[in-house]
Amino acid sequence: xxxxxxxxxxxxxxxxxxxxxxxxxxxxxxxxxxxxxxxxxxxxxxxxxxxxxxxxxxxxxxxxxxxxxxxxxxxxxxxxxxxxxxxxxxxxxxxxxxxxxxxxxxxxxxxxxxxxxxxxxxxxxxxxxxxxxxxxxxxxxxxxxxxxxxxxxxxxxxxxxxxxxxxxxxxxxxxxxxxxxxxxxxxxxxxxxxxxxxxxxxxxxxxxxxxxxxxxxxxxxxxxxxxxxxxxxxxxxxxxxxxxxxxxxxxxxxxxxxxxxxxxxxxxxxxxxxxxxxxxxxxxxxxxxxxxxxxxxxxxxxxxxxxxxxxxxxxxxxxxxxxxxxxxxxxxxxxxxxxxxxxxxxxxxxxxxxxxxxxxxxxxxxxxxxxxxxxxxxxxxxxxxxxxxxxxx
Length: 393
Fold this sequence. Notes:
Layout: H1 2-18, H2 21-43, H3 48-53, H4 62-83, H5 98-111, E1 119-123, E2 128-132, E3 135-140, H6 147-166, H7 182-196, H8 200-214, H9 222-229, H10 243-261, H11 270-282, H12 308-327, H13 331-336, H14 341-350, H15 360-368, H16 375-389
Parallel strand pairs: 1-3
Antiparallel strand pairs: 2-3
Helix pairs in contact: 1-2, 4-10, 4-16, 5-6, 6-7, 7-12, 8-9, 10-11, 10-12, 12-16
């Protein structure tokens, strides 16, 4: 597997550059066969895809995810359709000095509780987080025409970084001295970035910082700025998707990879299956493979079972935010002045400090008082975007 995936990643990169899925298909077929064989050994007679999921989200099975995501998808498709019938919101205009972006990003990281005494922020091509305990490092990126890329990439990675910094010191250098799972980890980055960082209250605070740092950028009010931060528009790329559409990208991948593992979908049919599903959920056609089934590196390196953890993270974040707002009725007043201390302290105490002591579902249930459900996330998205786009849902 190591040898084949090393080769496959290079072939994927070349095929993606050439927009030629047929050049990647043969090696993907090899990777799939090897991962299926590995999954069969690990499953010991059970479900092969469940065995793959266990690598990233212990205690979760595909049947549960199918039910959860199946309940999520129709609401997201309907919400997306309603939004895109509305006029687009105003967008930022101008040039945004990259040194100023990085300075504001550092200030935002510290607002969210990132400890620079045992953490770093550096610039890179791709935002990432690594490390644990007293050595946690994150990267962010800048774009002179889009400061949101820098700010929200930073906040997202800070969510990951704070989780690792806040695991109980007694757990360090042990098997439980890290995040409980990929999905729980993603819940922290998502609640920091979206429910907190993209909230109406916090964007009011960020609007003031941006006006001070950049002057006029075509947005006159905090309300217009909030809408610009949360703009929904057509797009093909998962990593660039807004809150409403992101999970549709993930659910597509979950269904397709599960079908491939079960041998219900052949590799040679993957591109057409992808394009058909994309058209069904998003309402328009994929123009080329690099914007469709070749856009992600994951399958080339054998990461089957990884994609659903992205949506699980959003589902978990929805549950956590529902509980947080019920316990802290003054949250908006705090966010409006950039005070994240009570929000992040609750996450630290309720979830982060426990590391991997419990299974993922138990970790979320302990913090929220109920088992994970897609309902809070869907309700949050419907309420938020109905308000932004003046919908009648």
